[in-house]
Records
---
Amino acid sequence: MSLVIIGTVAFDAIETPFGKTDKIVGGAATYASLAASYFYKNTKIVAVVGDDFHQEDIEEFSKHGISTEGLQIKAGEKSFFWSGKYHNDLNSRDTLATELNVLADFDPVIPESYQDCEYLLLGNLTPQVQQTVISRIHKRPKLVVLDTMNFWMDVAMDDLLKTLKMVDVLTINDAEARQLSGEYSLVKASKKILAMGPKYLIIKKGEHGALLFHENKVFSAPALPLEEVFDPTGAGDTFAGGFMGYIAKTGDISFENLRRAIIFGSAMASFCVEKFGTERLKNLPKEELDGRIQEFINLAQFDIELV
Amino acid sequence: MSLVIIGTVAFDAIETPFGKTDKIVGGAATYASLAASYFYKNTKIVAVVGDDFHQEDIEEFSKHGISTEGLQIKAGEKSFFWSGKYHNDLNSRDTLATELNVLADFDPVIPESYQDCEYLLLGNLTPQVQQTVISRIHKRPKLVVLDTMNFWMDVAMDDLLKTLKMVDVLTINDAEARQLSGEYSLVKASKKILAMGPKYLIIKKGEHGALLFHENKVFSAPALPLEEVFDPTGAGDTFAGGFMGYIAKTGDISFENLRRAIIFGSAMASFCVEKFGTERLKNLPKEELDGRIQEFINLAQFDIELV
C-alpha cells in the first residue's frame, strides 16, 4: 500500500520583503511529498523534470524515503520554472515568470510499483492530467484528494468539473471556493461544491486557518499565529502533503480523523513558511513537530460543560 | 456585586443587501447589556439619551433585569443617531449620518447603587469619557474591559494611550490592532499592545473568529460559519457583553476562563448578526443558546494524542 503524489517538481525564484532566492527546488509534489514523508514512509511521486534538474535534488527525495520511479527526466529539456514576488503583507504576489518547459506536454507515467496506491494526492496541475492519473491507477484508491487553483477555473472549468466528480476531497482557498461556487458565504459555497462531487471540502484561509465541510458538518482549524511569515510559497502543498501523510499513516478516513489530519497538515505548513522554499521541511526533528502539534492543542482547546 | 456597562444607547438606521430599517434602537451599551443579561442578572448601564427615546425601549432593559438608573434622559435633546449602509460582502460599510446630539457633552453619572461594580465594560466612546467612568468608581473593579475603535486612534490617540494603562483587557479588531501597533503581524502587534498596559488583548477577526493574547500565550476562537450574515451591526458589542456576562457569572478571571468567555461572547455575536439590530437578543431561549455553544464545541474540537 502506498501514497502516490502527482504534481510539479520545479524551480522557483522567490522574492519576499525579507530577501530573494536564485532558482531553488520547488513544486507542489516536492512540498507535498516532503511533508507526507514525516508521517508515512511509502510515499511515491509522479512528476516530470528536465535534465537541468540536479542529481542531489533527486537524492533529497530518496533521503526521505520517497520513491522517484515515477519522476520522468526529459533529456534536452528544461524543468518548469516559476518566479514571483510577494507584496509586503505576503497575502498577495505578482508572478514574474512562468516557463512551462517540460510541463507543456506532461504525460504522467504510473510505474507498475505504484499500482498499490491506496491514497492519491492530485497536486495542482491541469485537470486533464489529474484525470489521466486517476484513470491509469487500476484499482480505485481508498481516498483521492484534489488540489487545484483559480487558474484552472478560468481556463479549464469543464475539465475541472469532470475531475471533481472523480475525487473524494477537494482543497482550495476561500477566494477559489467563492469563484467556483459563485457564492460569497463559505457555507453556501460549500453546499454547492459538495454537490459537484467531492464528499469533503477543505477551504484554506491562510493565516485564518482552514474549514473542513462534510455533509452538514463543519470543522474549523486554527492557524498558528506567527511572528513572521518568511515565505508562503508551498504552504498549501505542504498542508495537503501533511494531511495525506497523516491519513496514510493512520489508515483512517473518518471525519474525526480528517479533522486531526488537518491539524497535522497545518502544523507542517506553519514550518514551511518559516524559511525560503523547502528548507524547513528537509530536516525536521520529531520533537519539533510534536512541540508544534502541542502548540495547536494549546491554541484551540477550551473546556466547556453545558449545565 | 455588579457588572457595569458604559456605552451608547442610540438610534440606528441600517441598510444591508437584505433590506433596510427605520430608526431602531442600537448602541454599544444596548447590545452589550442585552447579551450580558443572558448570563448575569446584576447588569447596569451608564448612558445618555434624549427625550425622543421611548419608554417601551427603556422597559426592554428592565425586562432583562438591566438597571437603567445610570441612563440619563435629557429633556429637549435628541438621542445619538447613526446611519450606515453595508456593502455586498458585509465586511465594509459607509456611514451615511452621524448625529452626536446628547453625546456631544456626555458627562457620565455613576449612581451610588453602581458603586458595587466588580466588572466594568467600557464600550466604544471617547477615551476621555471612558477614563472619567473609571475615576468615578471608587473601588477598583476586579476586571476592566475596554472596547474602542480606529476613530479614536485617529483623533484622540494620547487619551486612548492613557486609558489603555488603566484597563485589564482591550478588545479591538485586526485592522485596529495593526493601526495601534504599527505592526502587520498580529503576534508582533499583540506584544506592542500588551506593553501599552492591558494584560489581555482580544483581536476580533469577524468571520475568522478571535484571538486572545496574554503574556506569551494565545488562544484562537473560531467563528461559527454562517449561511448568511444579515446585519453585522452590534456584533462586536454583543461579543463584549456576552464575554463580560459570562465572566461576571463565573467570577473567574483566569486565562482558562477568559477562553471560555470568548466562546460565549462569540455565540452571542453569532445570534446578533442573524437579524436586524437587537431583534435576536431580545428573547433567546436557553436551549437555543446551549445548542449554539454545542455547535462551537463540535466546530473546534479535535482529539490528538501525541505518542
---
Amino acid sequence: MASIADKFAHKEVFVTGGAGFVGSHIVDRLLLYGARVTVYDNFSTGREEFLGSALPHITLIRDDLLNVEKLTRSMLNMSFVFHIAANADISKNELDPTKCFYQNTVATQNVLEAMRLNGVREIAFASTGSVYDEGSVVPTPEDVHIGMQSSPYGASKMAGEVLIQAYSSMFDMQAHIFRFVSLLGKRYTHGHIFDFYKQLRADPTRLTVRGNGKQNKSYLLIDDCVDAMFFALENSSRDVDAAGNPKKVHTFNLGTPESCLLNDSISYITSHLGVSPVISYTGGDRGWKGDVPFIFLDTKRINDLGWKPRATIREAVVETVKFIDENRWVLERGK
Amino acid sequence: MASIADKFAHKEVFVTGGAGFVGSHIVDRLLLYGARVTVYDNFSTGREEFLGSALPHITLIRDDLLNVEKLTRSMLNMSFVFHIAANADISKNELDPTKCFYQNTVATQNVLEAMRLNGVREIAFASTGSVYDEGSVVPTPEDVHIGMQSSPYGASKMAGEVLIQAYSSMFDMQAHIFRFVSLLGKRYTHGHIFDFYKQLRADPTRLTVRGNGKQNKSYLLIDDCVDAMFFALENSSRDVDAAGNPKKVHTFNLGTPESCLLNDSISYITSHLGVSPVISYTGGDRGWKGDVPFIFLDTKRINDLGWKPRATIREAVVETVKFIDENRWVLERGK
C-alpha cells in the first residue's frame, strides 16, 4: 500500500475553504506531503493569517463557490478536491436558511459539477454529526436510520452528502465524507468558547449561557481531526460494504470516545483563565432553535481501522482558550 | 374530524406543476372540494389540455420556480401548497445533473422560502421511491436506513425532502411527503409505455427494450395515487411518532401491493394492442445508468390508516395505453 505522502506528493490538490479553520490545517498537511495546493476561498470566514507560512507555496484564488465559471476554470488539472468550505455558523442559520442552502448545498453541487467537467475523480467532504439530528441511537453510528432534519444547517449538509453519493455512483468518483463533531483548537473562529471568552474578557465576573448548560456535546481537536481524515484516506480500502466490495463513498464519523456537558466545558474555560463568574442561563434545553441537545457519535468504523484521537475534550478546550489568548486579533475580526 | 372537502373548501391552494400529469389531477380534485386554486407551471412538460375544463376556474401563472421574486409574490394569501413540479424524466438526468438539481432541489428550496415569507404553513410534496435507491429491505418501508443515492434524480428529491423536514421543524410547518412508485394513467407523458407505444406505432413487428426486460418495477394508477394523497391528508393525525406525538412531517410510500417485470408490462401492452413484435433487448439488468432494477415499496403505513389502491398494475398499464391511443397528440408534443 502506498503511503499517504506518496498519494499526494506532486499531485494537484484543490482545497475549498482552504483559508479557514479546518481547510488551512489540511493545506499545511498537504504541503508537508509535497502536494501542489490550490486554495479556493471567498474569505467570508477564512483568514490569510491562517495560511501563514503556507502562503508562498500555494496558489490562492479569492472567489466564491457560487461563481461557477471561475470555479470550473480553476479546477483544471486537479486530481483531488477537499471540499471544506461551508457556512458552519449553525446558530445563525435560522435567520437566513437560503444563505445556508446556497453556501452548503448549491456550492457542493457546483464543486461536483466542476469536478465532472474537469475529470476530477476524488473528493473529501467536510460534513457534520448534525446530519443525525437527534439520533435515534446514541452514540450514533454512520448507518443509522436518519429520521428527520430539524435545522437548515443539518439539512444543507445532508443534501450535500446525497449529491456526492449520486455523482460518485453516476460518474465514477471516489468520495470520503467526514461527519465531524464540533472542532476545537488552533484557528478556531466561532462557537461557544469564542462567545464565552469574549464575555469573560469584557467582564470576568459574569457569564451568560444560552440554554441550561446541560447540552451534551462532543468535541474533537483539529489536529486529531486532520490526522483522522488522512488516516481514513490511507486506510479506507479496508472499509468495504456488506458483500466485501470496495465502496464508492466512505462515510466516517469523527469524534472522541467521550462527550461533555456545556457546564463541564465552562469549568475547563474558567479554571484555565482563573476566573469565577456568576453564570446565568437563558433556559431551555437548547442553545438556539434547531440546536441538538445531545450529540455523541459512534466512531467504531474508523477506530476499527486503527485510528483514535490523542487529545481529550478538556485538552481540546484548553488549547482553544490558549489559542484565542495568544491571538486576540481573531476576536476583533471574528464573527 | 373535518372532512377533507371541508379542509379545502374556499381555501387558497397553490399547486406547482399544476398543469402536469400529477398536478392537474390534484387541481381537479381541489376544485371538486371547492378550493380556490392557483396553478404555477412553466409548461416544460405541463399542458393546457390537461387543465381542460378546470382552466376557467383557476388562476394560472406561467412561470418558473427559479424565478424567486415571481414565486414569492404569487404565494401571497395561500394556505396550502402542493409542490408537484419536478424534473421527473429520470433516464435523462445523467446528461444534465445540474438541471435536475435546480428543478428538483433549488426549486423546492424556493418554494419553502416563499412559504416562510408568506406565512404558508402546509405543504404536500411529490417525492419518489427512487430515494431508497436499491433498498436494503424489499418491500421497502419508509423508515429504512437509506444507504446511498446512485442517481441525480433520487439525490435531488432526497435533498428536497430534507429541506422540507428542516423548514417544517424550524418554521412550524406541517408537511406530507409522498414517495411514489411510477405513476400511470390519464395524462401520462413519458416513460416506458410512452416509448413502447411510439415504437409499435412506427413498426408493430419490432420492439427494442432497454435492459434485459427483467427489471422489476411497481406502478400505481394516478387516480389511486391522488385518492391516497387526499386520504393521507385527511387521516394523518393518526400517523404518530414512536412516543405517540403528532409528526411535523408525514412520509408515506404510495404504491400497489404487487410489482411486475418489464416483460409482464410489455405483454399487457402488446396484447391490448393486438400486436406480436419481435423483442430485442439492449442487455444488462438496468434500463439506463442509475436505473434501480427492483423497486417495490412497503405501503403498510398508509394501508394501516385504511387506504388501498383499486387498480392492479395490469389495469393501470392498459388504461395508460388507452389514454395514449385516444390522445395521440401527447405523442407528437411529448418528450
